[in-house]
Design a protein that fits this description.
Elements lengths: L2 H17 L4 H18 L10 H17 L6 H14 L5 H10 L5 H17 L2 H18 L4 H12 L9 H10 L3 H7 L1 H21 L13 H10 L1 H15 L5 H18 L5 H35 L1 H12 L3 H16 L4 H18 L4 H15 L7 H10 L5 H24 L2 H8 L3
C-alpha cells in the first residue's frame, strides 16, 4: 500500500474528525497510530500485523517521550501560571482601569481602553480566548451600561482579544517554535511590532467609527480628576513591569524565554501578596487551573508530535513540495495560496488544531523556497489570529456572545467585527510585503 495515499487519507480523516468536534489530541494521535500501523503492516506487500505492533508503539512512545522532556515545553506551564496568577492578583485588569480613566472623556474612549486592556492582558497571559472571556465580562457590560452600541462594545473586545496570539508571551508561538525547531525567544520578539501595529490599527478603527457615527459611543458621565488619573496610571505598574521583564530581558540576552517566565511567576505572586490582592486560596486556584490547561496543551502537543512523525513516514510532505515546485509559483503566489488555506481552515477549526495539522506540510514547502521561518511564524500566527474572529466559527466571537447573552446577538458582533478584520488584513499584507517588521527586533537580539 502506497504510504503517500495513506497519508492523504489520514489527513482528510483528521479534518473530518476535527469538524465533528472530536478533541484535537485524540483525532491526531488516533489517526496517526492507526495509519502508521497500516503502513508498517503492509511494508512487505502482504498484511502482517505482528510486524507492525513494535514499530508503531516505538513511534508513539519515542516521540511522546522526546516531546515531554523538551526544555522549551517547560515554559508553557510557567506562562499559563503567570496568566492565572496575574489575573487573580488583579494585575491584568489594571491596564484597562488606567486606560479607562484616561480615555473615558474621548469619543469611543472606553472602547479604546478595552482594546488596550486586551493588549495588556494578552501581553501577560498569552491566551486570546482567555483574554476575550475575561475582558468581555469586565468591559462589555460597562460599555452597554454607558449606552454604547452593542456592535462596538462587543466587537472591540472580541478583536482586542486576538492580540494574545501575537504579543508575547504567546502559547501559539511556543508550539510553533517546538515543532519547527526555531528560537522561541526570537519568535516572541518577532511578534511585538506586528502586535503593536495591530493594536494601533484597532484604535484607529474605533476613532474613525465614532467620528462618523458619534451616537454609538456616548461620553463618560464625569471627567476624572488629575489625581484619579495619576492613581490609575501608578496602579498599572506591575503589568508594565512584567512586559518589560519578558521582552526586555529576552531582547537584552538577560533571560531565555523560560527563565523570563519563571522570574515573572515569582515576581507576580510576590506583588499579589504584597498588595493583598492575592491569598493562598487564590494561588492554589491559579495552580489548579494551570494544571488543567497545561495538561490539555500537552496532550495536544503529544498528539501533534505523533502525527508529525507519521507524516514524515508517509513522504507526503516531499511529494507536495515536488508538486508545487514543478509549477514554479512565485513567492507571492505561494504566500497567497497559504493565506487562503489558513483563512478557510480558520472559518471552521480552532487555531491550535489548524497549526499542528498544517505545519508538517507547510514547513518543508516554505524551507524549499528559502524563506525565514521566524517571519513565516508571524505570518501563520497572524492568519490564526484573523481566524479567531472570522465567521462562521470565530471562537472569540462566540466567547463574547456567551458572556453577554441576549444583549448582543452573534450577527451584531460579526457586523462590528468586519471593520477590525479590514485592519487585520492590511497588517497581514504589510507583514508579508515587509519582513523587516517582524525581523527587526529578533535580528537585534544579543
Amino acid at each position: 500500500m502506497d504510504p503517500a495515499i495513506v497519508g492523504m487519507v489520514a489527513f482528510s480523516a483528521v479534518l473530518v474528525l476535527l469538524a465533528l468536534r472530536v478533541p484535537i489530541a485524540f483525532a491526531l494521535a488516533g489517526v496517526a497510530v492507526v495509519s502508521a500501523f497500516i503502513i508498517f503492516a503492509f511494508r512487505t506487500g502482504t498484511f502482517m500485523p505482528e510486524r507492525a505492533f513494535r514499530a508503531t508503539t516505538s513511534m508513539v512512545f519515542s516521540n511522546s517521550f522526546d516531546l515531554i522532556h523538551s526544555y522549551d515545553l517547560s515554559m508553557i506551564p510557567l506562562f499559563v501560571a503567570l496568566g492565572h496568577i496575574a489575573y487573580r492578583a488583579q494585575i491584568t485588569t489594571k491596564i484597562y482601569d488606567a486606560a479607562k480613566v484616561w480615555l473615558t472623556r474621548l469619543p469611543g474612549g472606553v472602547a479604546m481602553a478595552s482594546v488596550m486592556g486586551c493588549g495588556g492582558f494578552s501581553a501577560i497571559t498569552g491566551s486570546s480566548i482567555a483574554c476575550a472571556s475575561t475582558m468581555g465580562r469586565i468591559c462589555v457590560p460597562e460599555m452597554l451600561r454607558m449606552g454604547y452600541d452593542p456592535r462596538l462594545a462587543t466587537s472591540s473586545v472580541a478583536a482586542g482579544g486576538t492580540l494574545g496570539s501575537l504579543i508575547p508571551p504567546s502559547v501559539l508561538f511556543i508550539i510553533y517554535g517546538i515543532f519547527t525547531e526555531t528560537s522561541i525567544s526570537r519568535l516572541f520578539l518577532a511578534g511585538v511590532l506586528p502586535g503593536l501595529l495591530t493594536l494601533a490599527g484597532f484604535l484607529l478603527v474605533i476613532a474613525v467609527w465614532v467620528w462618523r457615527s458619534p451616537g454609538i459611543a456616548p461620553l463618560g458621565d464625569e471627567a476624572p480628576t488629575g489625581r484619579e488619573r495619576m492613581k490609575a496610571a501608578i496602579a498599572a505598574w506591575p503589568a508594565l513591569m512584567l512586559f518589560v521583564v519578558i521582552v526586555g530581558g529576552i531582547y537584552g540576552g538577560i533571560f531565555t524565554a523560560t527563565e523570563a517566565a519563571a522570574v515573572c511567576v515569582v515576581v507576580t505572586a510576590m506583588i499579589g501578596f504584597a498588595q493583598r490582592t492575592l491569598d493562598w486560596a487564590g494561588l492554589w486556584a491559579s495552580l489548579r487551573e494551570t494544571c488543567v490547561q497545561t495538561a490539555a496543551i500537552f496532550f495536544i502537543a503529544a498528539g501533534a508530535k505523533i502525527f508529525v512523525a507519521f507524516i514524515a513516514l508517509t513522504g507526503v510532505a516531499p511529494a507536495i513540495v515536488n508538486t508545487v515546485t514543478a509549477y514554479e509559483p512565485s513567492v507571492f503566489q505561494l504566500m497567497l495560496a497559504i493565506a487562503v488555506i489558513y483563512l478557510l481552515l480558520g472559518m471552521f477549526l480552532d487555531p491550535i488544531g489548524i497549526m499542528v495539522l498544517t505545519l508538517p506540510l507547510m514547513i518543508p514547502l516554505v524551507e524549499s523556497y528559502g524563506l525565514n521561518l521566524i517571519w513565516f511564524g508571524v505570518v501563520v500566527i497572524k492568519l490564526l489570529e484573523i481566524g479567531l474572529i472570522t465567521p462562521p466559527v470565530g471562537l472569540n466571537v462566540f466567547v463574547i456572545s456567551n458572556v453577554v447573552g441576549n444583549k448582543a446577538p452573534i450577527d451584531k458582533i460579526f457586523a462590528g467585527i468586519a471593520r477590525f478584520l479590514s485592519v487585520d488584513v492590511i497588517v497581514l499584507i504589510l507583514i508579508i510585503a515587509f519582513p523587516a517588521i517582524s525581523l527587526l527586533l529578533p535580528m537585534g537580539m544579543r
